[in-house]
Structure formats: structure tokens, C-alpha cells
Amino acid sequence: MAGHRDAFVLKRIYEDPADDDGARVLVDRLWPRGVSKEKAHLDLWLKEVAPSPTLRTEFAHMQERFTDFRRQYEAELESNAAVQTLLELARSHPRVTLLYAARDPEVNHAVVLREFLLGRANA
Q1: pLDDT digits (tens, 9 = 90+) for 23-36
Q2: Which of 44, 100, 110, 113 has its CA 20 to 30 A from that of 63?
Q3: Residue by residue, what is the 3-state secondary structure of the chain?
Q4: CB 9 within 8 Å of CB 25
């Protein structure tokens, strides 16, 4: 896994599952609207790795708050045991697809989480 940038990939939960998704992990604290458990094809719902409710509310997916959100969320991740769960999952799967519901593919917590995980996986 170390050095492999494809170990963790991002995908909206609303996209169809693919054969190369590997382990599919929903990383949102709330279940996404309009998605059945069957359609999600999840291996794991790891809501504990999502931002705290307070941080999520403050961020509100506003681009101008993203830099501050990133800093605070990374601080939360430093002491989050669920990070280890994802790193261990990546050791046993060639790919872990981090699923999220946010509309913006560049300004969301899953982007921060993926970069954080890649930094730990390569350390």
C-alpha cells in the first residue's frame, strides 16, 4: 500500500458501484438521502471518521471556510481511532473507495480525509 496513490479513492455514494471499487466505505456521519442500503453496496459505514457535528455545521460546505475546516478536521483526525481502521482496511484491499454524499467533489471532508490517509499510509 505504501506509496500507492490509488489505495484510497473518492466517489459520491450516488454513483453506481464498480468492480474496481475495492472496499466501499461510507465516511459520512449521516446516511445519504435517497440511497437504500442495498444500492449502496457498502462494506462498512464508518461514521466515526466523519467531522464532528459541530465542525460539520460550522463548515456548511462553504468554500470560503474550507481552509479553516481542513485544519480543524485534520486535528480531529489526529486522535480518531477510525483512521486506523481505514489504514488496516487498505492493507487487506488493493483499493478502498471512500464514499461521500456532498455535491462538490473538491470541497468536502472526504477530500481532506483521503489526503490525511495517504500521508499516514506513506509514512
Answers
A1: 999 999 999 999 99
A2: 44
A3: CCCCCCCEEEEECCCCCCHHHCEEEECCCCCCCCCCHHHHCCCEECHHHCCCHHHHHHHCCCHHHHHHHHHHHHHHHHCCHHHHHHHHHHHHCCCEEEEECCCCCCCCHHHHHHHHHHHHHCC
A4: no
